[in-house]
Amino acid sequence: MAGEKKKQQPFWLGGAAASMAATCTHPLDQTKYRMQVMHQPKNILRTLVHFAGRDGIPSLWTGLTGSWLRQCSYSTARFGLYNYFAKEVKARTGTTKLTAGWEVVCSGVAGGAAGLIGNPTEVVLVRMCADGAKTAAERYNYGNSIRALYRIAKEEGMSTFSRGLTPNIVRSVIMNISQIATYSTAKDYLLSNPNLGLKDGIFLHFLASLLAGTVATTACAPADVLKSRVQSAPTINGVKPSLSKIFAESYKKEGISFLMRGWSPAWLRLAPNTVLMFVFMEQLQRLVGVSTNQPKPVQEKKASEAMKA
Asked: What range defines the domain where residue 176 resides?
């Protein structure tokens, strides 16, 4: 109805969808982090098989509690804040859909804020996932994410939770813009293109999110590698490694190509993760009765125009 107030997406919905997706793709996520802290180039499949053979198949889900904790903070914030900002902009501009410029602004600001909010849990996740790629003496052996938070605060101080904050915020801004803006634009195009004849369903969500995952992987790779190396680096004699020092050492040893280290596992993790996340999100939106304000498919437009005529 024209006067009916549209139901807004719950703040928690994005985090729930991201947690569901992360559970499915955690082995690939773990492999990505391990490859980023390993200074020798390796094949993703060989790396995954190596650790599975050495530590067992269940070990591929080591650090899953860290992933859940991160999604509950970071992903809940980035999608929840994006929807809040988008709602405010629409209300102030009197429109029902964001322009491309506002899409970038809302998703970018939400991503930056989420990167700040989620950095402590990002430190926990990286350390728990990268442990298996280190020697026994270098491992943290936290056990679970809550234990990790406690030990980091007690043994290294609260300031450790800000480690890698700058590249993480940069990555979060890029990630949110590239995922949300790309997905929204691709979905609009696929729905409105008369030559494709696609309906608003899971296949369309799959295509749009696959493109979003590919764009996000490429855009985020440099910041992702630097973030992981800074956060997984140990504190030596009370001295914490700086971003500039890690960049200089990595560049000297591996060349500028180190910034794309782990792109393949990152794509193999992020592309399926993005697909699952947006598919889960679309289904959760329908479950709670949220309006997405997407354009009507071409078939529906033609039928509506025929009825009016």
From this structure: 13-308
